[in-house]
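Try this one yourself first.
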């Protein structure tokens, strides 16, 4: 199967220790830094923030798409992605995630059904399924 779009980004310098990440079109151009919580100086973004931003945006788009396909009007929706980095045995690391989904204009059961369906179609959800712990929290606003 051929990709309908391929995003390309390049990391240079020292990676998360003050390196730079740029997209091939130049729109994304960020300096990386280790967060203070991990013993770094902070002052830049980090791979976990970039992953959280991508997943939140992708999941929100999937949610909107699912609602539209089901002809369900939603209001004031938002997705907050919390991505944690966790040490595992052998000096490696893994990620954890919680997706906080807020939806207005529907009842709790409808909101939860929409979130469950969005989790089935979101590319980030599909690529992480079975690989990291994912918690879905749905709030009707």
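Now uncover the answer:
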């Amino acid at each position: 199967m051929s990709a309908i779009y391929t995003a390309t980004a390049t990391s240079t310098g020292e990676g998360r220790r003050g390196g730079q990440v740029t997209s091939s079109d130049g729109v994304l151009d960020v300096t990386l830094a280790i967060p203070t919580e991990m013993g770094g100086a902070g002052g830049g973004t980090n791979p976990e923030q970039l992953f959280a931003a991508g997943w939140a945006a992708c999941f929100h788009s999937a949610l909107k798409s699912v609602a539209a396909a089901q002809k369900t009007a939603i209001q004031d929706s938002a997705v907050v992605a919390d991505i944690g980095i966790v040490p595992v045995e052998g000096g490696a690391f893994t990620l954890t995630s919680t997706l906080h989904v807020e939806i207005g204009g529907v009842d709790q059961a409808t909101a939860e059904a929409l979130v469950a369906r969005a989790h089935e179609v979101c590319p980030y959800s599909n690529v992480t399924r079975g690989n990291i712990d994912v918690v879905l929290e749905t709030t009707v606003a």
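Discussion: Strands lie at 9-12, 20-23, 29-31, 75-88, 92-104, 133-140. The helical segments are 47-69, 108-121, 123-128.
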